Amino acid sequence: MMRIALGVYTLTLLGSAAGFCPNPSVGKTDVAFSRFSSISTTALGVAVDTSDIKNGMTLELDGEPYKVLSFSIMKQARGAAKTTIKFKNLIKGNTIENTYRSGEKFETAMIEKSDHQFTYEDGNTFFFMNSETFEEVPVDAKVVEDKVDWIEEGKEVSLVFFKGNVIEVVVPSTGIYEIVETEPNVKGNTAQGYTKPATLSCGATINVPGYLEQGEMIKVDTEKGAFLERANK
Q1: Burial class of residue 81, CB neighbours in 10 A (0-12, 13-18, 19+)
Q2: pLDDT digits (tens, 9 = 90+) for 117-145
Q3: Residue 128 and residue 83 in contact, taking contact as beta carbons nearer than 8 Å
Q4: How far is the C-alpha of 65 from the C-alpha of 45, rounded, in Å?
Q5: CB 134 within 8 A of CB 92
Q6: What phi and psi, each to the nearest 5 degrees, are found at residue 113?
Q7: Residues 63-85: pLDDT tens digits?
Q8: What is the CA radius of gyration of the chain?
Q9: Dist. CA 149–CA 144, nearest whole Å
Q10: What is the pTM of this model?
């Protein structure tokens, strides 16, 4: 592990990051980082300021990962602008809102993201299998949260790790699901915009156009929980 001082921040570069491990096969290195061998995305901690803030960015505050949910910039007649940021603590689950002076600095959280398949649920624990190593990773239901509505057996998701622990489950922004329960289409009903509730194979319930029938496959926006279109069988 190597540390580099950058201003008032210290960046820790993990040996598993591409280009920073001299020889990952020597000694204990490959053992220490074997669980991350299929990491698809690695975000190293870097210094940013209020002008760099974006929704979805993960910052490290007081040693914990916080995801930016929203932010607003308030310009003042005199003095520097202020930025108000709403965060979600990805470990505890609580949200906070802080206001910062323009130019205040932060450090992005060092996170690793890798592809996994959902395999099964046992009580309050969800189990995912690494798509490359086939290692099984248990994830607490509190971490899965509302994503549970969009995962089903065999579904591909991304697990986000922070200091070796899973802090977030990310599902694709769109997905293909089967309608397993809905009202039958009433012949002659041509009312434009007519919708009805439908339960999907993943367990979520959304509104769909009235002409759709049970057993059809549809494409869904998982972020908005909205019907997009019929899917090709």
Answers
A1: middle
A2: 999 999 999 999 998 899 999 999 999 98
A3: no
A4: 11
A5: no
A6: -125, 130
A7: 999 999 999 998 877 778 899 99
A8: 22
A9: 10
A10: 0.68
